[in-house]
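Need residues for this backbone.
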């Protein structure tokens, strides 16, 4: 068991070496603990081989390692089968994969996809791209936008109004990367029924609170390792067994095989079963191993402790930002009657542009994110500042940041 105490920073070499640095950009990427770095080094230095290909000892050790991380991830998100866990390059790669491995082969003219224009572009653009691609081949699918409320939550009534018998898939976000609110996905499932597929972008929730795919009732759930203490370039898309027979590979090669045309003239894909069906080519082995170590690290702290720490710090941050009249919040928990946050708050600061504020804070060793945060909707109208927290942040760090913002108001 790892307690979050005053010496917690020692687990993160980057933070430990820079004691004064205040890292408030974990929604972009998290810092990496020693155990994760050691896991990657061990692979490179002690058994560097490919996975699923050779039968010599090192190759077997890598294959076993990947299998054991797959089982670990399955338990972590409460999947029913390890075959539901597909390793990807990250959330963006996973969300694109859904469009091509499922959408390309299952959508027909007239079908509708519901999406939120305010979401991270990775949850929007794959569907726009697929729509344009299908159109070139004479298939017209419709993308129907749904709304987010001023407190940053998906508007359930709007989803209910927009869903129709033509809706094939709704793409959703668990915790919004700018607004920071947690959405009630299980409730959306009950609103829309079992027929429609739900794809959930869980990039900002996995690693912050317990995520249970069965409770959520979704069909796809995508997340990135690097936002939960693992290496960049590794992610996971969980895919419910109920739709495995609707999937086709979107990348082929390596251990997969395409048969030549049969006597009927049709070309059949002979491929591996899930999850290998969607994992052509050599996997990001050190990244996947790092994900296993990251899950161990999270489990050692416990998700309950991480979630509680996140809520306490976010509330503390909100309370202090609310004391500064120059702060204008973007949609999010600042507009909720009972604000519960998971580490993300975004705002404008009157008198300074977001990028000016970013520079000022950076010059004081405080790292925040500024800009439009990879969105193209409401949050992209004007650059804003986003503060995002994780388990290594403290109330003292928030005080340091608030003191600088307060100074700016008195200039
Ligand atoms: N969705 C959300 C909600 C995100 O916050 C991010 C990362 N900013 C992504 C998708 C994309 O993640 P990645 O860059 O790891 O593919």
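Answer:
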């Amino acid at each position: 068991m790892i307690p979050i105490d005053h010496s917690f920073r020692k687990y993160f070499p980057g933070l430990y070496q820079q004691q004064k640095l205040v890292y408030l950009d974990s929604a972009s990427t998290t810092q990496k603990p020693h155990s994760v770095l050691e896991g990657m080094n061990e692979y490179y230095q002690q058994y560097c081989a490919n996975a699923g290909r050779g039968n010599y000892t090192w190759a077997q050790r890598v294959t076993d390692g990947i299998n054991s991380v797959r089982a670990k991830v399955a338990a972590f998100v409460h999947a029913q089968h390890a075959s539901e866990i597909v390793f990807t390059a990250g959330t963006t790669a996973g969300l694109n994969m859904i469009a091509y491995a499922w959408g390309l082969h299952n959508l027909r003219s007239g079908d509708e996809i519901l999406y939120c224009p305010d979401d991270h572009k990775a949850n929007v653009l794959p569907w726009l791209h697929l729509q344009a691609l299908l159109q070139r081949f004479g298939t017209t699918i419709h993308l129907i936008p749904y709304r987010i409320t001023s407190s940053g939550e998906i508007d359930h009534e709007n989803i209910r109004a927009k869903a129709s018998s033509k809706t094939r898939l709704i793409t959703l976000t668990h915790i919004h990367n700018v607004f920071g609110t947690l959405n009630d996905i299980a409730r959306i499932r009950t609103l829309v029924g079992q027929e429609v597929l739900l794809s959930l972008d869980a990039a900002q929730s996995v690693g912050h609170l317990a995520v249970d795919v069965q409770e959520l009732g979704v069909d796809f759930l995508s997340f990135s390792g690097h936002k939960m203490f693992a290496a960049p370039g590794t992610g996971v898309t969980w895919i419910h067994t109920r739709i495995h027979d609707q999937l086709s590979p979107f990348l082929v090669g390596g251990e997969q095989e395409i048969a030549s045309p049969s006597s009927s003239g049709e070309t059949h894909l002979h491929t591996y079963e899930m999850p290998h069906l969607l994992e052509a080519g050599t996997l990001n082995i050190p990244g996947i191993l790092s994900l296993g170590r990251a899950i161990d690290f999270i489990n050692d702290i416990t998700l309950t402790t991480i979630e509680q720490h996140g809520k306490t710090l976010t509330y503390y941050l909100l309370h202090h930002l609310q004391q500064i009249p120059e702060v204008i919040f973007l949609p999010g928990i600042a507009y909720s009657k009972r604000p519960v946050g998971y580490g993300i708050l975004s705002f404008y600061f009157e008198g300074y542009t977001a990028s000016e504020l970013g520079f000022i804070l950076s010059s004081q060793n405080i790292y925040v994110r500024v800009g439009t945060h990879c969105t193209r909707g409401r949050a992209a109208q004007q650059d804003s500042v986003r503060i995002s927290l994780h388990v290594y942040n403290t109330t003292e760090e928030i005080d340091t940041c608030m003191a600088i913002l307060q100074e700016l108001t008195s200039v």
